[in-house]
Design goal:
Elements: H1 3-13, E1 18-22, H2 29-38, E2 43-47, H3 49-53, H4 60-70, E3 76-84, H5 95-105, E4 109-113, H6 119-134, E5 140-144, H7 158-164, H8 171-181, E6 185-188, H9 213-223, E7 227-229, H10 237-243, E8 248-253, H11 255-264, H12 269-286, H13 292-299
Parallel strand pairs: 1-2, 1-8, 2-3, 3-4, 4-5, 5-6, 6-7, 7-8
The structure holds 1,3-dihydroxyacetonephosphate.
Length: 300
Amino acid sequence: MSHIAEVMKMAKKVHTVLPAFNIPYIPMMEPVVRALEEKNTFGLITVARLEWVKFESKSQEDIASEYRRVGNPECTSLHLDHIPVIDEDHLRIDYMSDISKALDAGYSSVMIDGSRLNLEENIKAVREVVELAHKTDVPVEAELGAVMGHESDGIPDYDELFESGKGFTDVKEAQRFVKETGVDWLSVAVGSVHGAITASARKQKKVTARLNIEHLQMLDEALQIPLVLHGGSGIALPYLKDSFNHGIAKLNIATDIRQPYEALKDTSIKQAQNAVYETMLEIINRLNLEGSAEKLLRRK
Ligand code: 13P
């Protein structure tokens, strides 16, 4: 089993979480890593396709090269976030090419997002990626259910969405999905939503999301693999902490560190980086993650 697969397993076992920080602007990576180092916290450095298409992370290779400069294997690992089969603008993507490039560039784990496909097609796409990535022992994350928010047409009313459970990951489907794909980690839909990314909405404050912990508990019991929570910014803290006791081993955070950077980047990159660093300290403290690197690596 690869290093990061073992660290994820351990995080699930000891009911802590690996926060995964998205890097839509390359200079954000240095303060993210610095905060993780200083607080001895293990975290993933991650980039999604939409961040080199719609923001300024350039490419998965550019992110990998910055990672070689500032990353630290004692407390970080490089992960490829959302490579969609169909993207937020409803376009088909050459996902195998994007995944192959990331594997060549040295990413330690990858995500394939077939969540806009039907179940059969999602299984087929994920299996194809798993076959490729497992050749070099790279774990794969996939998504089942609908974690909304990235769509250019926005999301329906949050309270209605949460109460109806529309788009939540179905337990039976998830069992079949995991069995037939051999996927290592699963992103589940249990109430979280992504921060908006369209140019007009990306500055908006996110809605405070809740999680259906009972539903999560059913998924955790049925699947028994590390689960992933997307849309990590703005989830009410008691739900978040509870989710770490029910299988969530990785938490994706983008909006919370992107917005302070964007607010200052045209004034001074240094000041924008400082704002990211301060936010990182606040997140590590809020999630009680100080010292997690030592704890996880020692026990792995
Ligand atoms: P937020 O922007 O809501 O933190 O979501 C991040 C995410 O899930 C990236 O995959």
